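Sharing a chain and its predicted structure for anyone who wants a worked example. Both blocks are below, sequence first, tokens second.
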Amino acid sequence: MKKPEKLSKLSIVGYGAGDAANNLAFTTATMFLLVYYTDVAGISAAAAGTLLLTVRIFDAFADVFAGRVVDRTFSKRFGKFRPFIMFGSIPLLLLSVATFSIPELGESGTLLYAYVTYAALGLAYSLVNIPYGSLAGAMTQDPGERAKLGSARMIGALLVGSALGIFVAPLIKPGADLQATFTTITLAFVVIGAALYFFTVLTAKERVHRAVPNVTFKQSMDTLKGNKPLLMLCLSSFFFLSGYLALTSVQLFYLRDVLGRLDLYPVLSITQLVLTFVLAGFMPRLVRNLGKKRVYIYSSLVTVVGGIIVFLAPASQVWIGFTGLVVSLVGVLAVNIVVWALEADTVEYGEWKTGVRTEGITYALFSFTRKTGQAVGGALAAYALALGGYKSGAVQTAEAVFGIQVAAGAIPAVLTIVAVALMSKYRLTDDRHAEIIADIRSRRESGTETVDGASDGVSDGAAGGTSDVEPAAKPLTSTTN
């Protein structure tokens, strides 16, 4: 078997720049939109929770729509994915400005404006992020190189997240002109984001063979049917992201209103940045030694420990609570690095089963479950604030403090335990993936694009169980539009 060509450093950095650009809109929303709605726009916590739940579920369906659009599109000059990044990036960044610029329209008008702008932002994000995420699977099939892309993506996202935590979060305090702050920041992000997106377009190129450039709806559905690894990864990610978004949504509330140390937010962000570079440096080696599945499970368990600490730490014990946040962060960062490589592996699984490669719809289904997880997590956090009786700009009661601790610690810990239980059933190990890649290449070299009637069973010690043998896959001949 021909050894896969290594990616250049420029292409890896260029790919990471794309997620930095994505997170100028995405992380800004996940970190600050709830506090913007409650403390600036004057929307109640309960109404904001319902808004986040509704719009993020809409976003999840927008991902599926975007996945189909991507699978049906192909440019001979720019490939399948980069045109969406080129032409969708500016509208996405401008909609981020609109989302954080709610005018005074009365209670109903404000809520309507918030729904419309956030929904439009979500749709624009799907039309850029689905092609961007799918691009990794088209750049390389080598597990080590995919781990590098996952690390680059995480570094790009965390550079933005850390900058927001260091420079923006300390400004979110009573009496500040927060509307002017958010307007200025999001306008600056339009310029910065556009430069980052176009750097990605120029450096991250598609190199994986594609037998069917334009994929029919039936072919898209065929690659999803029976893709058990994708199903288990989607379900696990749903619960993990639900917990993670609950924490992210109230992290600022936890530091400001529970620990009384908003000044620690920049410290947490700097810690996050350092941890990202440390993890990115040895994650490819860790993946080679343990396998992606074990890294995912062990890292998730670290997140559980952090959540328990956050939930149980008394408000007076600032450094214990802060340590819990850092421990949670270590697990989250490691999972977020490896999960994208796991998703890319499921693309090859679907291609092996059907002979048709469909990065778009595969990534869209994965993103759909992640978006629904984000919707549920953000809503649970907001509802926990509402049930605790959170009041904007006031000294919080003991009940309100407990509600924040539930959202920041208990909810993430419980949901992550469920995610680990589901991931233990994941059978597409790195060894099995290598066999599938070899089989796909063998069929290409022989001039056929059909599925061998091969067993999909595999024994995985990490799961602690026996092999999960599927019936032989039926031969399916690839067709074109």
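Comments welcome. Residues 450-481 have pLDDT under 50 and may be disordered.
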